[in-house]
Amino acid sequence: MRLKASPLVIIEAIAVVSFIILLGFLGYQNSNPSRQLQPLTQEALVNSSAEERWNGIFLEDQHVGYSVQRTSTSDSGEMLFEQRSVFRINTFGSVQEVVTAGAALTDTAGMLRRFDFFMVSGEIKMSARGEVSGNSIVMEVDQGGEISNLDFSIDEPPHVSLSLESVIRRQTLQLGHSFTVPYFDPITMSNGEMTLRVVDSEVLENGEEAWWLATTFGDIETRSLVTTGGDVLRQEGALGLSVVRMTAESAQAVPIDDDPVDLIALSMVPLEGKLKKPRDSRKLTVQVSGIPLEKLTAYPPLQIIKDDLIIIDVPLLEELPELSIETEDTESQWLEGTITLPVNHLEIVEKASELVKGSSNRLEAAQKINQFVFDHMEKVPAIGVPNGLQSLRSAQGDCNEHTALFVTLARAAGIPSRIAAGIVFSDRAGPIGGFYYHAWPEVQLGGPSDWVPIDPTFGQFPADATHIKLAEGDLDQQVEIMGYVGRLKLKLIDHL
């Protein structure tokens, strides 16, 4: 049986950045070229060829964590790449520790055979393991004790982040050299091609020449400094994020008294102009800059793109029609269960039936589910891949957990629902206010708008007009949003 893999988008900036770290997938955006970089010392370079290679994880000039890698080769030529990391994340003043571990095994030709990944942060635990079998990747994912088995079709064996080293080692690095690698991301479940280009060189303190690689996967660019032998010495990313080779002692010397810089505040999309009563807004026009305008997608009549303007017009509650709860299109993709939206789980089915019991139409039923999620969930930052069942049980999380729970319950009740991802206005991180990366549900309610945005995190039905949608669906469709971090800018033109 083949299941469509559809993990929920991790849009909150904290989750985006944390998973970028976990995957070694750092979107490069040097917005502050004058900032001081953590230096590569002679002692760290000597240790770069050791069995264990240690790295410090930095946010701007703060040391927030460490990672350690190990590479070993069997007598037959197979290579095993292992990595584990520990780092501290600050979101709205809440500091959380994240622990990860992963491994990848390649064959004698350097092709991926098996991989696994594990992450724990507070109450959230996730593990995934997979292997290449013929023209498929077979995976087993465990989220909160619920195991899902997945099967992905592939044209050729891909690589994961950890096994890329085996590809780089087989290249002759020199300026201008580029090569393409089939790539699979086990967290986002996205599959495609990764392009690597040698864009610069650098002479290290020990006299060895190293190379800067620019890596492109979708719209996200990575920048890494590697040795001729393929050993990664530094990675630099958006928001002042960097991973730097260090000695074991220095890498693990993470200060515990200082709170890390708040990543949510760093990820703010600046707004030129001042919004009044943003939670009550129904119309909004903003000018966009910093990203290619062709990347913006219109969703008329809710969201219209005109030149470099985004125009939002959200319907009033009284304008929404009262459709039947159940849809005639029972095969709709917006009713399907996925790995993170376990629509058919008994607990979900029973709760959905309980919530919509007595509802005379879809609008009323959706409102009941939205209110339940708003009341049920404690609003706390969470790091991980959201899951509807896990959110129901834990009753806490951020916008991703709220969205996962709503969409899971709504689909279980027969109400077509989907995930929207983008940005929303908030003054939570400071008195000035700005736009932050966010996720929310959309419900198919018919009428001129058909799909209507709602927000169980804010308790809104419909959602206000500051919800600017950049993508919809699941994470494999939304990876490009990671490339917007640190680049997107907005100017207020009009609002009502």
Task: Characterise this structure.
The protein is of the alpha+beta class and 496 residues long. It has helices at residues 13-22, 42-46, 164-168, 248-252, 263-266, 346-356, 362-376, 388-394, 399-412, 475-478; strands at 52-59, 62-73, 79-91, 94-106, 112-121, 124-133, 136-143, 146-153, 178-185, 190-203, 209-217, 220-227, 232-236, 241-246, 271-272, 283-289, 303-306, 309-313, 378-379, 396-397, 417-426, 434-446, 450-453, 468-472, 489-495. It has a 14-stranded antiparallel sheet. Strands 15-25-16-18-17 form a five-stranded mixed sheet, with no helix packed on it. It has a four-stranded antiparallel sheet with strand order 23-22-21-24. It has ten helices and 25 strands. Helix 6 crosses helix 9.
Question: Which helices and strands appear, and what pairs or packs with what?
Answer:
Layout: H1 13-22, H2 42-46, E1 52-59, E2 62-73, E3 79-91, E4 94-106, E5 112-121, E6 124-133, E7 136-143, E8 146-153, H3 164-168, E9 178-185, E10 190-203, E11 209-217, E12 220-227, E13 232-236, E14 241-246, H4 248-252, H5 263-266, E15 271-272, E16 283-289, E17 303-306, E18 309-313, H6 346-356, H7 362-376, E19 378-379, H8 388-394, E20 396-397, H9 399-412, E21 417-426, E22 434-446, E23 450-453, E24 468-472, H10 475-478, E25 489-495
